């Protein structure tokens, strides 16, 4: 991968697809299209909910919402991570309001029905008198299929059997290389954006915009319009070489380390991205809410064992958020432009081929 982009840099060439493509504007606006995406992508494919370090200790928990479902992620006293609907089995009240914490038991704020950290029903006031003949073993929290893999908690489809390793394919080994289980949550930024969800991952799939959109942040650290990509099944690996890549020409190939001279962006289809930097990883997760509304979570993951002070990681997180906000602000601008009717289609140049592949993969899943 490094050899390819180094050769492009030395030859003053660009990584080019065969042709220019167009993508219909309606795919970013249409409510019926959005519902099809909900049905065929978000409800039927695995998705990442949390990093394991967010619930590192037994009895720790997280509250999340995805696909309109209120979720409770619990690390049981047995160390196993499980995902449940955050709903009381008595009258349907939301069980947990706190965003995160560590508790052995969770009691409903309405009538104090109580469950343990494995989601098992424990007790309720006057239970025997009020609910004779009710089997308490059938009152566990409603559990959803999930897997802990590569340091992340994955929500698996409820109604579609799918093997996570098969879904990841070649990406499985790449995520193992990231060693996510030995990363730790440092800081999270949450945002609400007024744009279609697809515009947000699209912003990271090309370097064409770096010199202009990021002129006040990271442009000087990267080459102008130089990147490459490879499809790994439905997923995409993008290589974004830094300006320092020219130094490799003077080094033994055996000493090359891709993270020293390039960012690697993994687009984990359809809604997660890992921006792999020299010493840490940024996890970006989009949560489609409506055709023109998207929630974002951006998390800095640092090594569990690090000698660098918190200020160092804070500065890296702040620069990343500032840079990505430049992209996200433009995404909202594009959404407004699409509503105007000025264009029927968006144009993807030959150096924006990864955007075409991303959208083509979506269409294939909607058939």
TrEMBL record:
It holds the Pfam family Rieske. Its cofactor is Fe cation. Gene3D superfamilies: Naphthalene 1,2-dioxygenase Alpha Subunit, Chain A, domain 1, Rieske [2Fe-2S] iron-sulphur domain. Keywords: 2Fe-2S, Iron, Iron-sulfur, Metal-binding, Oxidoreductase. One of its GO terms (molecular function) is iron ion binding. CDD domains: RHO_alpha_C_3 (cd08887), Rieske_RO_Alpha_N (cd03469). Signal peptide: none annotated. Residues 48-155 form the Rieske domain. InterPro entries: Rieske_2Fe-2S (IPR017941), Rieske_2Fe-2S_sf (IPR036922), Ring_hydroxy_dOase_asu_C_dom (IPR015879), Rng_hydr_dOase-A (IPR001663). The keyword Iron applies. It comes from the Bacteria. This is Rieske (2Fe-2S) domain-containing protein. It comes from Oceanococcus atlanticus.
